[in-house]
Amino acid sequence: MQADDFLDITDVVCPITFVKVKVALEELDDGQILEVRLNEGEPIQNVPRSLKDEGHKILSLDDLGNGTFTLLVKKGGLK
Amino acid sequence: MSANYKELKKGGFMRQRQPNYFSMRLKSVGGQFTAEQLGTIQSVATKFGKGYIHLTSRQGIEIPFIHLDDVDAVKKALAAGNVQVGVCGPRVRTITACQGNAICPSGLIDTQKLAAEFDKRYGGRELPHKFKFGFTGCHNNCLKAEENDMGVKGGVKPNWSAEKCIFCGVCQAVCPEKAIAVDKSAKSVTLDENKCVYCGKCIKSCPTDAWQGQSGFVVSFGGLYGNKIAVGKNFLPIIFDEEKLFAIVEVALQFFKDHAKSGERFRTMLERVGWEKFISEVEAVANAS
Ligand code: HEM
Ligand code: SF4
Ligand code: SF4
Ligand code: SF4
Q1: The two domains B5-80 and B96-287 share their CATH topology (first three levels equal)
Q2: How many CA atoms lie within 13 A of B184 on its CB side?
Q3: DSSP 3-state assignment of A41?
Q4: ipTM of the predicted structure?
Q5: B168 lines ligand 3 (CB under 6 A)
Q6: Residues B270-273: contacts with CB within 8 Å, 24+ apart?
Q7: Contact: A58, B168; criterion CB under 8 Å
Q8: At A74, which helix (H) or strand (E)?
Q9: Of B29, B84, B146, B200, which one has the fewest beta carbons inside 10 Å?
Q10: Does residue A15 have a cis peptide bond before it, meaning omega lies within 30 degrees of 0?
Q11: Is residue B8's pLDDT more than 90?
Q12: What percent of chain B has pLDDT over 70?
C-alpha cells in the first residue's frame, strides 16, 4: 500500500506525538493514507487508540524490531 | 467535654493541637463537590475558620480552626448549603473513586455511580475498625484500588472474532502483558488468558472492533497504607454482575464483624484468622449462580 505522506514521531513524547499526527492528517483528504513511525511504550499504547477515537482507520502496523513501529492509517476511514 | 468529644469525632470533628479548635471533616463521595457546596464551604471557612481548607489524601475536605463554641452554628450553615459532615472512627469511611467511564476515555466502569450506590448501602456502617472502599475505572489504577480494605477496579474480558480482523497487528503491540500474538501470514490471533489483566487496551485500539468484551469488576481485599503497608489481594475472577458484587461486600463486612477484635483492621484480622477461611466464604458467594 502506498502512503500519501510520511511522519516520524520517534523524537517526541506524549502528548506531542498525537498533536503531530493530527496536524499531518489535516493536510490530507479523507481516504488518503499516512505512514507514521513511532516508538514502543506510551506512543504505541496511545496513538492507535486516539486515531480510532477520532474516526481514522488503522490499516496495518509493522514492528521494525528496533523499538519502533510503522503504522499505516487512512484518514476518516471509520466514518 | 470528654464524653462530648467522642460524639464530636463521630460527627467529623478532628481535635486540633490548639485547645478547643477542631478541623471539620466534610462528607465526600468519589471526590465530587458541586459548585453550590463549594460556595457553602467557602463561606463557612471564611466566617468560622481561617479562610482556607485542607484537601485530605482520600478526596475529602477539612475546614481547620472551627471553635468548639461555633460547632452548632457551623453544622447548621453546612446543612443549609447541602454539605454533610464526614465520618471518622470505626465504620465505613469516605468512599473514593476516579472519574471512571462517565468522563475518562480509558474508563471501563461507572465508578461515580458505584461510589454513590456503595455510600447509600454501606456509608457509615459501624464495624470493629475503619473500613475503606475505593473505585478505580481501569487497570491504570489512578485511584489505587489495592490501598483500600476493599478495592474495585474496572476490567474487561476480551473476545476476538475472526470475521472482523484485518490482522493489522495493533493489539499485539498495545497489550502491556504480551498476552496477544498476531500471526499476519497465518492469519491467526491467539490470546493467553493467564497473562491477561483485563485492561481493555486491545479492545480500545482495535480499528475494526474485532476485539469486544463485557466490562466487570476486579476486586481486592485487605489493603493498608498507614502505619502498616500491605497491598490488597485479588483472588477472585472478574465479576460481571453488580448484585454479586454487593453480595460479596456483605460477606466481607460480616466476616470483619464476626472475626475482628475491637480496633483490629481488616487485614490484621485476616492474617490472624487465616485468609483461607475468608477466601472460601467469598468464593462461595462469587461462584454461586
Ligand atoms: C494522545 C494524546 C495524549 C496522551 C496519550 C496523554 C497521556 C497522558 C497520561 C498517561 C497522563 C498521566 C495521567 C496520570 O498519571 O494520572 C497525562 C497527564 C496529563 N496530560 Fe496528557 N495525554 C495526551 C494529550 C494531552 C494534551 C493534548 C494535553 C494538553 C494540551 C495534555 C495535558 C496533560 C496534563 C496537563 C496532564 C497532567 C494531569 C495531572 O497531573 O492531573 N495531554 N496525559
Ligand atoms: S483509573 Fe482508568 S478510568 Fe480511572 S481515571 Fe485512571 S485511566 Fe481513567
Ligand atoms: S487490532 Fe484488531 S484488527 Fe488488528 S490484529 Fe488485532 S484484532 Fe485484528
Ligand atoms: S485486556 Fe489488556 S492484558 Fe488482556 S489481552 Fe487485552 S490488552 Fe492484553
Answers
A1: no
A2: 11
A3: coil
A4: 0.86
A5: yes
A6: B270/B221, B270/B222
A7: yes
A8: strand A68-74
A9: B84
A10: yes
A11: no
A12: 97
Judged against a pLDDT cut of 70, whether residue B4 lies above it is answered with no
Predicted pLDDT of residue B5: 66
Q: Is B204 on the interface with A (CB under 8 A)?
A: yes
Name the grid cell of B189. 490471533
Cross-chain Cβ contact A61/B170 below 8 Å: yes
Percent of chain B with pLDDT over 90: 92
Return the domain boundaries, chain A: 5-74
Can you tell me the distance from the alpha carbon of B254 to that of B127, in angstroms, rounded to the nearest whole number?
9
Q: What distance in Å separates the CA atoms of residue B100 and residue B111, rounded to the nearest whole number?
A: 5
What Cα–Cα distance (Å) separates residue B24 from each residue in A75, B6, B52?
A: 55, 14, 12
What is the crossing angle of helices A42-53 and A16-26, to 10°?
A: 40
Query: Which CATH code of 3.40.50.2300, 3.30.413.10, 3.20.20.70, 1.10.10.250 fits the domain covering B96-287?
Result: 3.30.413.10
**CATH dotted code for B5-80:** 3.30.70.3340
| pTM strictly above 0.90 | no
Spans in chain A with pLDDT lower than 70: none
Lowest-pLDDT choice from B1-10, B33-42, B276-285: B1-10
| Mutation site for A-interface testing, chosen from B205, B211, B212 by largest number of A Cβ within 10 Å | B205
Fold type of domain A5-74: Translation Initiation Factor IF3 (3.30.110)
Three cell numbers, residue B81? 448549603
Tell whether the torsion through CA atoms of B208, B211, B217 and B221 is positive or negative. negative
Helices (H) and strands (E) in chain B, counts: 9, 12
